[in-house]
Amino acid sequence: MKFSELEFRAIQVLRKNPRITIKELALELNVNRNTASRVLRSVLQKGVKLKVTLENRPTIFIVGECASWCEECYPLIDENNMCVARADDVDSLLRRTAEVKAKQVFISMKGNISDPQFTITLTCDYCGKEIHQGEKYFTYNRNNRTYYLCCTSCLKGIKYQLEKRSEIFK
């Protein structure tokens, strides 16, 4: 299997962090988001598999208040929060738990995730909204560049914007 120089660089970046965003990948590769997205899609179509492996560290899930030391905090529908944190040992996690008002505490000793689904998201080149995999989107090609757009309003807007820009530079 042959990879272009850009695809090979993308693979090297993805080896360090397979959860990198398209925007971060574009910055690392020094290309725009659309090019980074196409490179990633090409790499995946050539059979490269991305696998996220977490260290085998204890993880704590706290239902209640979110603490400042939490790595991730998610609001739940019952107006509580789910706080997620990892540490090297269970004792340090439990000591931290005493600092917050916790309704429930769950501890996981397993840290491996096997083959998570990797989703590719695009960003609308007009309004900046994320276009998730499976959502309908529009493309507009101009001057060897493909623009990705979330709706017909953005499609009209980018066409108008590019026409206006081309008139200025005539």
Topology:
Layout lengths: L4 H12 L5 H8 L3 H13 L13 E6 L7 E4 L5 E6 L3 H8 L4 E7 L13 E2 L6 E2 L6 E5 L2 E5 L2 H17 L2
Antiparallel strand pairs: 1-3, 1-4, 2-3, 5-6, 7-8
Helix pairs in contact: 1-3, 2-3
Comma- or semicolon-separated keywords:
170 residues, two-stranded antiparallel sheet, single chain, alpha+beta, 8 strands, four-stranded antiparallel sheet
Describe this structure in words.
This protein is an alpha+beta fold and 170 residues long. The protein is 34% helix and 22% strand. It is built from five helices and eight strands; from the N terminus they run αααβββαβββββα. It has helices at residues 5-16, 22-29, 33-45, 90-97, 152-168, and strands spanning 59-64, 72-75, 81-86, 102-108, 122-123, 130-131, 138-142, 145-149. The strands form three sheets. The chain has a four-stranded antiparallel sheet, covered by helices on one side. It has a two-stranded antiparallel sheet with strand order 5-6. Strands 7-8 form a two-stranded antiparallel ribbon. Strand 5 (122-123) and strand 6 (130-131) form a beta hairpin. Helix 2 (22-29) crosses helix 3. The chain starts with a helix and ends with a helix. Residues 112-119 have low confidence and may be disordered.
